[in-house]
Amino acid sequence: MNTTKEKMIALCQGQLDAYNNRDIKAFASFYHPEVKAYRLHNNEQILSGLEELNKIYSKRFSENPNLHCELKSRVVLEGTVLDEEWVTGVVGQLKPSHVVAIYKFQDNLIHSIWFAA
User: Fold this and answer.
1) Mean pLDDT across the chain, nearest whole number?
2) Distances in Å between the alpha carbon of 45 and those of 36, 40, 105, 112?
3) What's the Cα-to-Cα distance from 10 to each of 21, 24, 39, rounded to whole Å?
4) CB under 8 Å to 45, separation ≥6 — which residues?
5) 3 — pLDDT class (breaks 50, 70, 90)
6) 109 partner at 20 to 30 Å CA-CA among 24, 52, 66, 82?
7) Residues whose CB falls within 8 Å of the CB of residue 55, separated by 6 or more in sequence, listed in order
8) How many CB atoms lie within 10 A of CB 19?
9) Are residues 113 and 101 in contact, defined by beta-carbon separation less than 8 angstroms?
10) pTM (predicted TM-score)
C-alpha cells in the first residue's frame, strides 16, 4: 500500500514535533517496527528497529535538554520526503548542524531514513 503525500507530510511533521518535545513515546510512534537509518555519504547503517531507535533517541533527548530541530525546507516527492533542518541544543556543539533527512515509508509509517550532513 502506498502512503499518500498528505500522510507522508503528517508523519514527518509529527515526528519532528515529538523530537522537539523530546517525547520518545510519541517520536517512536511514527516509525515502522523495522525502521532503519543510514548515513548517506557512505550508506552506513546507524540503527535498525524500534528498540534501537528508542535507545538512541532516549539518550539523545535526556542528554540534550535544549535540543531543537528547525525545519528549513521540505520537498515531497512520490514516495519520499526530504527535510532540510538546523539542529541546535546539542551539548558540546557550538554551532547548529545543517542536515538533510530523507524519509521513505512502508505501511503508513516511516521505514527508512538517510541523513546527509
Assistant:
1) 96
2) 7, 9, 17, 10
3) 16, 17, 23
4) 36, 37, 38
5) confident
6) 66
7) none
8) 21
9) yes
10) 0.94
Altogether, the residues listed in the chain come to a count of 117
Residue 16 has pLDDT above 70, yes or no: yes
Q: Residue 99 corresponds to which cell in the numbers above?
A: 542536515
